[in-house]
Known about the structure:
The structure holds 2 protein chains of 2 kinds. By secondary structure, chain A is α+β, with helices and mostly antiparallel strands.
Amino acid sequence: MKMLDAFRSALQSIIVNKLRSTLTMLGVVIGVAAVIAMVAVGNGASAQAQSSLLALGSNLVTVMPGAQSDSGLRGAGAQAQTLTLDDMRAVQDQLGLTIRAVEAEQLTGRWQVVAGTNNWNTQVTGATEQYPIVRDWSTQSGDFFTDSDLRLNAQVAVLGATTADNLFAGADAVGQTIQLRQVFANRARIINFKVVGVLEPKGTTFGFSRDDQILVPTTTAQRVLTGRTNVVNAIIVKAASSDTMADTTEDVRSVLLQRHKIGDAANADFTVTNQNDTLAAINNVTAIFTLLLGAIGGISLLVGGIGIMNIMLVSVNERTREIGIRKAVGARRGDIMRQFLIEAVALTGLGGLLGITLGFLIVQLVQEIARRSQLQLLPIVTSGTVFIAVGVSVGIGVVFGLYPAMRAARLHPIQALRYE
Amino acid sequence: MPEPVIRLRGITKTYRMGRENIVHALSGADLDVHPSEFVALMGPSGSGKSTMMNIVGCLDVPDAGRYQLAGVDVGRLSDDELAAIRNKHIGFVFQTFNLLPRLSAVENVELPLLYGGDRRARRARAIAALEVVGLADRVDHKPTELSGGQQQRVAIARALLNDPSMILADEPTGNLDSRSSAEILAIFQGLNEQGKTIVMVTHEPDVAMHCKRIVRMRDGLVSADEVVARPSRAADELLTGIGAA
């Protein structure tokens, strides 16, 4: 019996037993849909985590104050005052052209911001002149402040796109003056800043809007806003490329160890982290996550496969006489075997196709829910997942159809013909 | 006398029924059937006639003895080789018709060509075979839409499809009324006149009288073998039957 006839006969038998076939296929349909939807959600989460990380700038090596022990940070980063602007300048001078750029940031907390009659409340951060290069973030209007602004502790500010919108309602913010206000120990402080630039909009990262912030020169932040002179919260180095990140990490560490006069790297009073490592860690976590989700789908596929085997055994049993008749008119073992195998594969294959459709619908649904609830999750269906799901479902047809098909092929023609 | 198409020598076959009972279905039977013979195989139940048919039809193999089919020693063939012989050289007709209920008449008739022979010509040949048995107008009917006699004629068309050298019929009229029986026997006699070898198991003496030779079996052996001097002609009975009605 040729393949085409076998397929036709398989489809016929599936159509004749509509309800039974549908119920049997349901196991495979749900399994395949589960694998596709779950892996898509896993991939989406993974991609989201990666793009969030890369949105902070690419090829970054970050130095934070405080040592890292096995149990985590020893001393909270914001309080340990071991990194200075001079450390940043030293890295800049000594590493020179082997790195792309470097900047240092100091957090100053939230401030009330007033521009004309508009009030706003936002985070103000000190940054240095190479911030736009390090963070891959340029201004949409005006310019970023320069190293001379830093030397002069200039009271200039660069606004995030959302902040600029809220303070100036669409009008050009560059050249305008804003007031930073903070009430501290019953003493109100009011400081004027001149807006020199507005950053391009970037969207949210890990659920936080990055467009609502104000950047001022780090020196100004230190002397005018916080009084924590020279201390910075982070030094961020942009390596020349992804390949040189490991080297850059080592270079930065040795420059700072030398400056801090620490002989043993284990006693360092700062921590250097490298974005590749963070990415690898995130990828590791999301891979496990995706694997876990896939495994759950895989188990439902397995259960579906057992259902296929069950129904194929019933079908072989029911059609014992048919097998006898086919054998009597000359069907060989291989013919009978092929007929039942193809029937099982047709069941699972069809189930697989329906499962893909259902999987895509679920993915659409997840996207819609994510969009409505403003979740940053875009499930990703890769062609690889689809191929694997179809391959696995057809494979399940072969594996779980094999035993029933073998039983059918081995039937003795006389006994099969006599079967009532 | 030409070489026999079927040559059985000392055929034995035992079955185990349950744990203790061993049934000696055949205990050393001999039989020769020559081309163009029309043989009735008779005997009480348990005489081994069905087992004999199964072995002749290559559906079963003997425990001992030699079976030569058209000069080929069948005892040495594998399952798949036996299947090929059933496909090419033997046409079966059963008491219970054994049609596949899901398939139409023509699809049932086509079956043997699915497993060997000229596959592309199968539809045309199936229709031609249905014409031979007078069912050209029932091509697309399902077995359940046909009378018993018509179903048996479909089964005969199926048996004829690969132009086998012999037809084996196991009580082909057992489930039919006398008119349908006569129709089936008329078809068999027509085929036999064209040179087909036919072996038919029956326990009805008047059915056996349509054959040219009657072989009787008892206790797993051939007990009598006689030539029918003047076989009844089913075609004549049909005519007189219609005349009487």
